[in-house]
Specification:
5 helices; Rossmann fold; alpha/beta; five-stranded parallel beta sheet; 5 strands
Length: 121
């Protein structure tokens, strides 16, 4: 059975690049969201066992998504993918329940290492 993953970024190009960086033989069902509101809806629809989450988005940003997941006790493995590499941002997302922080542009090697570390691939 395919693992449902969700790629959340307001940039279609960024979503496409992240998807291309995923392991080619990984059995996944990929969904996409352009903002946090769409991400929460996709999660509720069962499309986010693993979520790749950007931080800077309109309507509802990545921090707000993490806060909503936490408040509603929703369980998803969230990997934040962001160009915001400030230490304070990294610490905040980890305290909100993200399992990892990967900087943009995404490296397939780094992404694969994180996925292996958490036993997802």
């Amino acid at each position: 059975m395919s693992l449902p993953i969700l790629v959340v970024d307001d940039s279609a190009m960024a979503r496409k690049m992240l998807i291309k960086s995923l392991p080619p033989d990984w059995d996944v069902d990929i969904s996409q969201a352009a903002n946090g509101i769409e991400a929460i809806a996709a999660y509720r629809a069962g499309k986010a066992a693993v979520m790749f989450l950007d931080l800077t988005m309109p309507d509802m940003d990545g921090f707000q998504v993490l806060e909503a997941l936490r408040q509603e006790e929703l369980n998803s493995m969230v990997i934040v993918v962001s160009a915001d590499i400030q230490t304070v941002a990294q610490e905040r997302v980890m305290s909100l329940g993200a399992i990892a922080f990967v900087k943009k542009p995404v490296s397939a090697d780094v992404l694969n290492a994180v996925l292996k570390q958490y036993g997802v691939i």
